[in-house]
User: What shape does this take?
Amino acid sequence: MSLGTTLKQVRQRQGRSQAQVAEGICAQSMLSAIENDHYTPNAKLLLALCHRLAISLDEISLATDFAISGDDTRNARMQRLCNQHRYQELRDFLMAPTTVAAVTTDQQTQAYYYYLGVAQLHVDTRLTAAQQNLTFATTMTTQRHPTTLTRLALASLAVVKAKQQLNHSAALLTDQALAQLDQQPYEENQNIIFYLAALTAYRLNEPQLATDRLLTGIRFITDHHSHYMLANCYRLMAEIADQAGQKNEAADARQKQRFLSMLFHEKVPGKF
Assistant: This one.
Protein backbone atom coordinates (compact mmCIF):
# COMPACT_ATOMS: atom_id res chain seq x y z
CA MET A 1 0.00 0.00 0.00
CA SER A 2 1.47 3.36 -1.04
CA LEU A 3 1.81 6.57 0.96
CA GLY A 4 -1.01 8.19 -1.02
CA THR A 5 -3.33 5.22 -0.55
CA THR A 6 -2.63 5.20 3.19
CA LEU A 7 -3.55 8.88 3.55
CA LYS A 8 -6.65 8.43 1.40
CA GLN A 9 -7.91 5.43 3.36
CA VAL A 10 -7.44 7.17 6.71
CA ARG A 11 -9.25 10.28 5.42
CA GLN A 12 -12.15 8.23 4.07
CA ARG A 13 -12.46 6.22 7.30
CA GLN A 14 -12.85 9.52 9.13
CA GLY A 15 -15.56 10.61 6.68
CA ARG A 16 -13.69 13.77 5.69
CA SER A 17 -13.46 15.35 2.26
CA GLN A 18 -10.24 16.32 0.53
CA ALA A 19 -11.20 19.98 0.95
CA GLN A 20 -11.60 19.56 4.71
CA VAL A 21 -8.25 17.86 5.15
CA ALA A 22 -6.37 20.20 2.80
CA GLU A 23 -7.77 23.46 4.23
CA GLY A 24 -4.97 25.69 5.51
CA ILE A 25 -2.32 23.12 4.54
CA CYS A 26 -2.26 22.83 0.77
CA ALA A 27 -4.51 23.07 -2.27
CA GLN A 28 -7.13 20.34 -2.65
CA SER A 29 -5.61 19.51 -6.02
CA MET A 30 -2.25 18.86 -4.34
CA LEU A 31 -3.83 16.51 -1.79
CA SER A 32 -5.54 14.72 -4.66
CA ALA A 33 -2.17 14.35 -6.41
CA ILE A 34 -0.61 12.98 -3.21
CA GLU A 35 -3.42 10.47 -2.70
CA ASN A 36 -3.05 9.27 -6.28
CA ASP A 37 0.75 8.98 -5.93
CA HIS A 38 1.37 11.70 -8.50
CA TYR A 39 3.24 13.88 -6.00
CA THR A 40 5.47 13.04 -3.02
CA PRO A 41 4.99 15.54 -0.15
CA ASN A 42 7.98 17.08 1.58
CA ALA A 43 8.53 16.50 5.29
CA LYS A 44 6.71 19.67 6.42
CA LEU A 45 3.64 18.93 4.32
CA LEU A 46 3.56 15.27 5.35
CA LEU A 47 3.75 16.21 9.04
CA ALA A 48 0.89 18.67 8.65
CA LEU A 49 -1.32 16.10 6.93
CA CYS A 50 -0.50 13.47 9.55
CA HIS A 51 -1.36 15.92 12.32
CA ARG A 52 -4.65 16.86 10.62
CA LEU A 53 -5.60 13.19 10.24
CA ALA A 54 -4.33 12.26 13.73
CA ILE A 55 -2.04 9.52 12.47
CA SER A 56 1.59 8.83 13.34
CA LEU A 57 4.53 8.55 10.99
CA ASP A 58 4.88 4.96 12.22
CA GLU A 59 1.66 4.20 10.33
CA ILE A 60 3.01 5.93 7.24
CA SER A 61 6.24 3.93 7.33
CA LEU A 62 4.25 0.75 6.82
CA ALA A 63 3.28 2.03 3.39
CA THR A 64 6.83 1.60 2.12
CA ASP A 65 7.10 -2.12 2.80
CA PHE A 66 6.45 -5.05 0.46
CA ALA A 67 3.61 -7.55 0.82
CA ILE A 68 4.43 -11.19 1.57
CA SER A 69 0.83 -12.41 1.22
CA GLY A 70 -2.69 -11.35 0.29
CA ASP A 71 -3.55 -11.06 3.99
CA ASP A 72 -3.31 -7.40 5.08
CA THR A 73 -3.23 -8.37 8.77
CA ARG A 74 -0.29 -10.69 8.19
CA ASN A 75 1.51 -8.05 6.11
CA ALA A 76 0.94 -5.41 8.79
CA ARG A 77 2.42 -7.64 11.48
CA MET A 78 5.47 -8.38 9.35
CA GLN A 79 5.93 -4.69 8.60
CA ARG A 80 5.53 -3.71 12.24
CA LEU A 81 8.17 -6.19 13.41
CA CYS A 82 10.56 -5.03 10.69
CA ASN A 83 10.04 -1.31 11.34
CA GLN A 84 10.58 -1.84 15.08
CA HIS A 85 13.75 -3.87 14.43
CA ARG A 86 12.34 -6.88 16.29
CA TYR A 87 14.27 -9.25 14.08
CA GLN A 88 14.12 -12.38 16.25
CA GLU A 89 10.32 -12.17 16.31
CA LEU A 90 10.31 -11.38 12.60
CA ARG A 91 12.36 -14.47 11.78
CA ASP A 92 10.12 -16.69 13.92
CA PHE A 93 6.99 -15.20 12.34
CA LEU A 94 8.28 -15.69 8.80
CA MET A 95 9.33 -19.28 9.45
CA ALA A 96 5.95 -20.25 10.93
CA PRO A 97 4.12 -22.77 8.67
CA THR A 98 1.01 -20.56 8.51
CA THR A 99 3.07 -17.65 7.19
CA VAL A 100 4.85 -19.80 4.62
CA ALA A 101 1.51 -21.16 3.40
CA ALA A 102 0.18 -17.63 2.85
CA VAL A 103 2.95 -16.75 0.36
CA THR A 104 1.56 -17.44 -3.10
CA THR A 105 2.73 -15.10 -5.89
CA ASP A 106 6.23 -14.59 -7.34
CA GLN A 107 6.39 -11.04 -5.98
CA GLN A 108 5.31 -12.17 -2.51
CA THR A 109 7.91 -14.95 -2.62
CA GLN A 110 10.67 -12.48 -3.46
CA ALA A 111 9.59 -10.18 -0.61
CA TYR A 112 9.36 -13.15 1.76
CA TYR A 113 12.94 -14.27 1.11
CA TYR A 114 14.18 -10.69 1.32
CA TYR A 115 12.66 -10.11 4.77
CA LEU A 116 13.71 -13.54 6.01
CA GLY A 117 17.28 -12.91 4.87
CA VAL A 118 17.34 -9.51 6.58
CA ALA A 119 16.01 -10.99 9.83
CA GLN A 120 18.59 -13.78 9.74
CA LEU A 121 21.37 -11.29 9.02
CA HIS A 122 20.57 -9.56 12.31
CA VAL A 123 20.02 -12.55 14.61
CA ASP A 124 21.99 -15.52 13.27
CA THR A 125 25.70 -15.69 14.07
CA ARG A 126 26.27 -17.83 11.00
CA LEU A 127 25.55 -15.99 7.76
CA THR A 128 24.81 -19.04 5.62
CA ALA A 129 21.01 -18.85 5.82
CA ALA A 130 20.91 -15.08 5.35
CA GLN A 131 23.15 -15.33 2.30
CA GLN A 132 21.08 -18.13 0.81
CA ASN A 133 17.73 -16.38 1.26
CA LEU A 134 18.94 -12.99 0.05
CA THR A 135 20.43 -14.70 -3.01
CA PHE A 136 17.01 -16.26 -3.67
CA ALA A 137 15.45 -12.80 -3.42
CA THR A 138 17.87 -11.32 -5.99
CA THR A 139 16.93 -13.95 -8.58
CA MET A 140 13.17 -14.24 -8.06
CA THR A 141 12.01 -11.62 -10.52
CA THR A 142 10.80 -11.59 -14.10
CA GLN A 143 11.48 -7.86 -14.59
CA ARG A 144 14.00 -6.94 -17.28
CA HIS A 145 15.48 -4.18 -15.12
CA PRO A 146 16.07 -4.56 -11.36
CA THR A 147 13.16 -3.40 -9.24
CA THR A 148 13.62 -1.55 -5.97
CA LEU A 149 13.08 -4.82 -4.08
CA THR A 150 15.72 -6.58 -6.18
CA ARG A 151 18.15 -3.71 -5.56
CA LEU A 152 17.49 -3.92 -1.82
CA ALA A 153 18.20 -7.63 -1.87
CA LEU A 154 21.45 -7.02 -3.78
CA ALA A 155 22.54 -4.29 -1.36
CA SER A 156 21.65 -6.44 1.66
CA LEU A 157 23.57 -9.37 0.21
CA ALA A 158 26.54 -7.02 -0.24
CA VAL A 159 26.46 -6.34 3.51
CA VAL A 160 26.63 -10.10 4.12
CA LYS A 161 29.62 -10.41 1.80
CA ALA A 162 31.29 -7.46 3.51
CA LYS A 163 30.84 -9.10 6.92
CA GLN A 164 32.56 -12.15 5.40
CA GLN A 165 35.34 -9.85 4.11
CA LEU A 166 34.62 -10.88 0.52
CA ASN A 167 35.57 -7.48 -0.86
CA HIS A 168 35.18 -8.14 -4.57
CA SER A 169 31.75 -9.79 -4.25
CA ALA A 170 30.53 -7.03 -1.92
CA ALA A 171 31.67 -4.30 -4.31
CA LEU A 172 30.11 -6.01 -7.34
CA LEU A 173 26.74 -6.46 -5.61
CA THR A 174 26.75 -2.84 -4.44
CA ASP A 175 27.48 -1.61 -7.97
CA GLN A 176 24.54 -3.70 -9.27
CA ALA A 177 22.24 -2.27 -6.60
CA LEU A 178 23.17 1.34 -7.46
CA ALA A 179 23.45 1.01 -11.25
CA GLN A 180 21.17 3.47 -13.11
CA LEU A 181 19.07 3.98 -9.99
CA ASP A 182 18.42 7.59 -11.00
CA GLN A 183 16.67 6.32 -14.15
CA GLN A 184 14.11 4.35 -12.15
CA PRO A 185 10.85 5.94 -10.88
CA TYR A 186 11.42 7.11 -7.32
CA GLU A 187 10.32 5.03 -4.35
CA GLU A 188 11.21 5.86 -0.75
CA ASN A 189 12.69 2.42 -0.24
CA GLN A 190 15.46 3.45 -2.63
CA ASN A 191 16.80 5.64 0.18
CA ILE A 192 17.83 2.45 2.00
CA ILE A 193 20.07 1.37 -0.87
CA PHE A 194 22.46 4.28 -0.33
CA TYR A 195 22.63 3.54 3.39
CA LEU A 196 23.38 -0.13 2.76
CA ALA A 197 26.00 0.79 0.15
CA ALA A 198 27.70 3.04 2.71
CA LEU A 199 27.43 0.35 5.40
CA THR A 200 29.13 -2.12 3.06
CA ALA A 201 32.03 0.28 2.49
CA TYR A 202 32.24 0.87 6.24
CA ARG A 203 32.42 -2.89 6.84
CA LEU A 204 35.23 -3.12 4.28
CA ASN A 205 37.22 -0.41 6.10
CA GLU A 206 36.74 2.17 3.36
CA PRO A 207 35.58 5.19 5.43
CA GLN A 208 35.95 7.79 2.66
CA LEU A 209 33.88 5.73 0.22
CA ALA A 210 31.28 5.16 2.95
CA THR A 211 31.10 8.91 3.66
CA ASP A 212 30.81 9.75 -0.04
CA ARG A 213 27.93 7.30 -0.42
CA LEU A 214 26.19 8.77 2.62
CA LEU A 215 26.51 12.29 1.25
CA THR A 216 25.17 11.11 -2.12
CA GLY A 217 22.32 9.35 -0.34
CA ILE A 218 21.44 12.42 1.73
CA ARG A 219 21.28 14.53 -1.45
CA PHE A 220 19.16 11.84 -3.14
CA ILE A 221 16.75 11.72 -0.19
CA THR A 222 16.34 15.48 0.17
CA ASP A 223 16.10 16.03 -3.59
CA HIS A 224 13.02 13.79 -3.46
CA HIS A 225 11.54 15.75 -0.53
CA SER A 226 11.86 12.75 1.76
CA HIS A 227 13.19 12.27 5.29
CA TYR A 228 13.21 8.47 5.41
CA MET A 229 16.65 7.06 6.40
CA LEU A 230 18.20 10.50 6.99
CA ALA A 231 18.62 9.81 10.71
CA ASN A 232 20.29 6.47 9.96
CA CYS A 233 22.61 8.10 7.43
CA TYR A 234 23.76 10.70 9.96
CA ARG A 235 24.13 7.99 12.63
CA LEU A 236 26.54 6.06 10.41
CA MET A 237 28.33 9.27 9.45
CA ALA A 238 28.90 9.98 13.16
CA GLU A 239 30.30 6.48 13.64
CA ILE A 240 32.76 6.96 10.78
CA ALA A 241 33.85 10.38 12.07
CA ASP A 242 34.35 8.97 15.58
CA GLN A 243 36.67 6.27 14.29
CA ALA A 244 38.63 8.87 12.33
CA GLY A 245 39.03 11.02 15.44
CA GLN A 246 36.98 13.84 13.89
CA LYS A 247 35.16 14.93 17.04
CA ASN A 248 33.49 18.04 15.64
CA GLU A 249 32.17 16.24 12.57
CA ALA A 250 30.94 13.36 14.73
CA ALA A 251 29.15 15.70 17.11
CA ASP A 252 27.50 17.57 14.22
CA ALA A 253 26.30 14.36 12.57
CA ARG A 254 25.03 12.98 15.88
CA GLN A 255 23.12 16.19 16.61
CA LYS A 256 21.39 15.98 13.22
CA GLN A 257 20.60 12.30 13.79
CA ARG A 258 19.01 12.98 17.19
CA PHE A 259 16.93 15.83 15.82
CA LEU A 260 15.66 13.73 12.91
CA SER A 261 15.00 10.74 15.14
CA MET A 262 12.96 12.89 17.50
CA LEU A 263 11.06 14.59 14.69
CA PHE A 264 10.27 11.54 12.58
CA HIS A 265 10.51 8.70 15.14
CA GLU A 266 13.06 6.90 12.98
CA LYS A 267 14.90 4.15 14.84
CA VAL A 268 18.67 3.94 14.49
CA PRO A 269 21.02 1.12 15.56
CA GLY A 270 22.80 1.40 18.87
CA LYS A 271 25.85 -0.23 17.33
CA PHE A 272 26.86 -1.54 13.92
Q: What stands out?
A: Residues 66-141 form one domain. The chain has three domains: 3-55, 66-141, 143-265.
